[in-house]
Amino acid sequence: xxxxxxxxxxxxxxxxxxxxxxxxxQELTDAFFDILSNTLERGENISLSSFGAFRLREKxxxxxxxPRTGKPVPIEARRVVTFLSSRTLRARIGRAQ
Length: 97
Description:
By secondary structure, the protein is an alpha+beta fold. The protein is built from three helices and five strands. A hairpin with a 6-residue loop joins β3 (about 60-65) and β4 (about 70-75). The longest helix has 20 residues, at about 20-40.
C-alpha cells in the first residue's frame, strides 16, 4: 500500500469516478489546488465541510539553534498554514483502522 497520494493519483481517480479524460482531470486537479493556494496567499482561511479547515497562523520571532554548531540562530516571524480535520473526517479515519 502506498503511503502518499499525488496530484496524478487524484487526477486518475477523477477519471474513474466522474468519467472525464486524463487531461481534463489533470486540469481540474491543478485548478483546485491553485484556488486553494491563491486563497491562502490572500490571507483567507479555507473551510471544507466534512473534511477540515486550512487556517493561517502568525508565528512570532523566536530563538532557534543550529543543530550542527549549537549556535543560537534568530528565526523571524512568519505566517504558516495549519490543517484541522473535521469530526466527520476523524471519525472516518478512526473506523478505517
